[in-house]
Design brief:
120 residues, mainly beta, seven-stranded mixed beta sheet, 0% helix
Length: 120
């Protein structure tokens, strides 16, 4: 019904930048919340940033001041601008959308994941 496709991952040196994108297609009434999660080797999946339909944002303390989340509601797309990257940012990054099926119900969908490696 709904599919999320991610792009933008890759290999970058410490201090570099990457821009991740995630676009949704399928049967969509509205998208209440868009978010980015990451899972580093040996660690559990953790929230990185979220943005609401009204544009309010929230970030994990570890990325505040370095990452910026934004969305294009007309394109059902969320972005994550990643600056001043550190080796500890290395992880598989996943987008997650809370999609409204009615005025009262939502369902979560995940992207396929995109790898980000920060290394000299």
């Amino acid at each position: 019904q709904v599919q999320l496709v991610e792009s933008g991952g890759g290999l970058v040196q410490p201090g570099g930048s990457l821009r991740l994108s995630c676009a949704a297609s399928g049967s969509i009434f509205s998208i209440n919340v868009m978010g980015w999660y990451r899972q580093a080797p040996g660690k559990k999946r953790a929230l990185v940033a979220v943005i609401t339909s009204g544009g309010s944002t929230n970030y994990a303390d570890s990325v505040k001041g370095r990452f910026t989340i934004s969305r294009d509601n007309a394109k059902n797309t969320v972005y994550l601008q990643m600056n001043s990257l550190k080796p500890e940012d290395t992880a598989v990054y996943y987008c997650n959308f809370e999609v409204a099926s009615s005025y009262y119900e939502t369902h979560a969908y995940w992207g396929q994941g995109t790898e980000v490696t920060v290394s000299s």
